[in-house]
Amino acid sequence: MREKAQNGVAAIDLAQHVAERDLVVPFTTPELTRAAMRAVDRMGAGLNASVRLVKVQVVPFPLDFDKSPVFVSFLKNQISQLHSDLVMSGEIRLAREFETGLIGTLRRDSVVILASPKRLWRTNNERLAAALRRRGHKVILVSDELAGPGGRFVPAVGQPGEFHRA
Fold this sequence. Notes:
Layout: E1 2-6, E2 9-13, E3 21-26, H1 30-44, E4 49-58, H2 72-80, E5 87-95, H3 98-103, E6 111-116, H4 124-134, E7 138-143
Parallel strand pairs: 3-4, 3-6, 4-5, 6-7
Antiparallel strand pairs: 1-2, 2-5
């Protein structure tokens, strides 16, 4: 485990692994993160892929930047409860904003996998996916219903900023 701080974001890497495909699953809610992890397991089967589970903990402004409002041991426990069939590592990032913290961990070739419930309105994860696409990142948005056991997923593809539902 190693800690590093740069550009207003502190990170705690729980493991390291380098693979051809960098699949990043942001920890949003336990249920949606599990759905995204199930989709990643199916997508990454047979590929030289690794999964990075990224927990971005927002630290509000009045607090010192290195003082998480949630115990780091609790955040580590949240990450350790999720498993993947692929090589998986966990990362905790302290940031002032969720999107900024997540973008700070993405590589040029990273693929972000998010799960979102079906709603008549755009969810937070759908807005996050659109914002990441506008910045040129590859994002796959899966429905949490379709990412369940035996379900299928339809990757959301298109131009950055375009929105597609599974």
